[in-house]
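Morning F.,

Quick status update on the modeling queue. The single chain you submitted on Monday has been processed. Sequence for confirmation:
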Amino acid sequence: MFSDAPEQAFVEVKAGDLALMDARILHAAGKNFTDQRRTLVLSWHRRPPGIIPDYWQGDIPPAILERDPNAEYEGSRIPGAYLKP
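Structure tokens below.
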């Protein structure tokens, strides 16, 4: 979906490399033009709700301060109202 964004940046990795990223960043993998399988190991980390990191120095955005800690959001691969440019 986003693999042709005009400001995209390519991050080339080789088999066995580790790439760490923030999943909130628009990302895509290029098409596999080979007959070789590409394997991905994916791991997610989520900060517990209501916890502000000790290293945070700035004001805490209202969207964080006022959020409902019990809210649940439907998962989707399509950007919605929570993805802002």
